[in-house]
Amino acid sequence: MKKSNIIRKKEDLIYPELSFKLVGYAFTVFNELGAGHAEKYYQRAYAAVLEKEKIKFKEQAYAPLIFQEKVIGRSYFDFLIEDKIIVEIKKSNFFSKANIDQLFQYLKTSHLKLGLLINFGNERVYSRRIVNTQEYPID
User: I need a surface site. Which of 47, 48, 68, 78 has the fewest CB within 10 A?
Assistant: First the structure.
């Protein structure tokens, strides 16, 4: 594989400015709170930062799973940011397959393109971009 195919440019990313801000807000939370808190406290602090920064968001955003015009399941995202990006907050030092699969399923169900998995670890924040490769229009 050619090196040029491996390197991703910032302009190739989906919602680069907003997603970089969202990850930065997680570092803001961690720098102030530190390690060792319950996941729900990181979520509350993250929501407070989003409000302060005037970012449009929904907490515990509901997304139905629909089959043949019938709701057969329900998902609740930790955060839906500007109706574009799902943010899932976890407390962990690693990305579990279950967490990645969960976020990817949320993206498919909601027809959104980008999700951020943010883990508050013992010593730092870990983040991972999850991209839904199914074809849906983006703005």
Answer: 68
For 14-131, the fitting CATH number among 3.40.50.850, 3.30.450.40, 3.40.50.300, 3.90.320.10 is: 3.90.320.10
CA–CA separation, 115 vs 102, rounded Å? 10
Rounded Cα–Cα distance for residues 8 and 70 (Å) = 40
Give the tokens for residue 133.
């490769």
**Rg, Å, the chain Cα set:** 16
Read off the pLDDT of residues 61-95 as tens digits, 9 standing for 90 and up. 998 888 899 999 888 999 999 999 999 999 999 99
3-state secondary structure of 82: coil
pTM reported for the whole predicted model = 0.85
